[in-house]
Amino acid sequence: MRHLKNIFRSLLFVLILLILLFIGFSVLVWFTTYHPNDREFVNVYSRGEAPVLQPGQSLRIMTWNIQYLAGKNYVFFYDLFDGSGPDERPSSKEIAFTLNEVARVISVESPDIILLQEVDCRAKRTDYRDQLADLLAKLPQEYCCYVSAWYWKALFVPHPRIMGSVGMKLAIISKYRISGAIRHQLPVMPDNIFVKQFNFKRAVLEARLPVSGRSDLIALSTHLDAFAQGNNTMERQVAKVRRLLQGLSNQGCDWVIGGDFNLLPPGGAYDRLSRNQQRYYKPQTELAPFFEEFQAVPSAGEADSDSAGEFYTQFPNDPEVYEPDRTIDYLFFSRGIKIGEHYVRQNDTRSISDHFPVAAEVTLE
Q1: Are 328 and 314 in contact (CB under 8 A)?
Q2: Are residue 52 and residue 193 in the same domain, yes or no?
Q3: Residues 70-111: pLDDT tens digits?
Q4: Quick count: other Cβ atoms within 10 Å of Cβ 324?
Q5: Taking the complete model, does pTM exceed 0.90, yes or no?
């Protein structure tokens, strides 16, 4: 009987120890990962006195996924469908070169509003640098207002190809005054309770730019999920962004949203991809409602025309893809904005990122 009691006490001790270890591990994971609210105000920063937008003014707007300044000389592990890409990070030399190239393109294009995605901050793979600060240091002083918001953040990710801190932001840089900014959380990819803590927390970053004598212009930057087929994450994220834009329109605000939507345009884009590349998408794009309700750059017609290649925005880091082959980055506008010249800058940006910048001239009517 005493022997059974000793066994029971030992088992109880082991059970209590396991429970304490589980609780300790859970607490550690929680406090080293990112848990944003559904809606959060974001600090606005200014390097000087910024002018205010005027009614009838023309603007140049650019969106660009800069791929954390990694360049195009790598095939990262996540670039292949099975996660077997050979590379884990860019070299410090490559990051410095790409930073200069991004700054060069922005300086030449001289957009008034820049919507950026994949801007690293405090990440092991990019030497713990604040890439937004590094970029601003190389841009003209007229880019005086900026905001940013995290969408991947953890002190340590125990993935065998990462094993360190991660940090990635959306950013908006403006020549004109920004009066306020909000981060909107998007639905997250389903996974087990622990893995979800280390995953991306995709978001929309909203910046309000005052316009003299009328309602604000709202500029938004976003980056939707990738590798999400097999669940309804993309539908949910598209629906959340759509509701946000409809709400802004109902308030009487003009707006522009740009970003990497990781979704094809309507039409024949899916059929033009190789079978291996089709695995990332659905034959009927989840983004179709955006082209029906909002103004788009590129438009559905442009992205499905004989000149569709001119509007391709991605050149994947996949060895089986030899040329840019898809459009997944866009600018969408409210109906009160007049769109002028617009294009995808491909000719001198192929070595900078796996995405090309999309630019448009617009007028605030």
Answers
A1: yes
A2: yes
A3: 999 999 999 999 999 999 999 999 999 999 999 999 999 999
A4: 20
A5: yes
Same domain, 25 and 43: no
For residues 111 and 256, give the distance between their C-alpha atoms in angstroms, rounded to a whole number: 14
DSSP string over 233-285: HHHHHHHHHHHHHHHHHHTT-EEEEEEE---PPSSSHHHHS-HHHHTTS-SS-
Q: Tell me, rounded to whole angstroms, the distance of Cα 259 from its chain centroid.
A: 6
Residues 27 and 149 in one domain: no
Q: Bridge partners of 217?
A: 209, 254
What is the rounded CA–CA span in Å between residue 364 and residue 239?
26
Phi then psi dihedrals of residue 344, to 5 deg: -110, 125
Query: CA 314 → CA 177, 194, 337, distances in Å?
Result: 31, 32, 26
Asked if 253 contacts 334 with a C-beta cutoff of 8 angstroms, the reply is: yes
Residue 214 lies in domain? 38-364
Q: Are 34 and 135 in contact (CB under 8 A)?
A: no
Phi, psi (deg, nearest 5) at residue 39: -145, 125
| Integer Cα distance of 277 and 267 in angstroms | 16
Q: Are residues 240 and 107 part of one domain? A: yes
